[in-house]
Amino acid sequence: MKFMNMKRQACPRCGYQMDTAECFLEPKADPKPGDISICMNCGDLLKFLFDLSFAVPTSDEEVNIYLTATPKQLKLLRVTQAFIKKRGRIKKNDNLL
Description:
Layout: E1 4-10, E2 17-21, E3 36-38, E4 45-48, E5 54-55, H1 59-68, H2 71-87
Antiparallel strand pairs: 1-2, 3-4, 4-5
């Protein structure tokens, strides 16, 4: 997986502070506007905007993500989200950022 350092920002869903990201569906690529990531705290989908900040995908965008992803990408997405949701939210003092 290829991680990118970025300006610290909060997940728009849960507020978790992040300063590193990756393009989830193309792990060897640098994230670019429109690409998808996942919050490591809440497991929700995020999309990269033109300035590489995060936004919550619209309902239509989220449906499109699931319709255009390969079976391998869908499996990775579901397994990752299930793991994050089972693990639970990261405690504030565990946030190393």
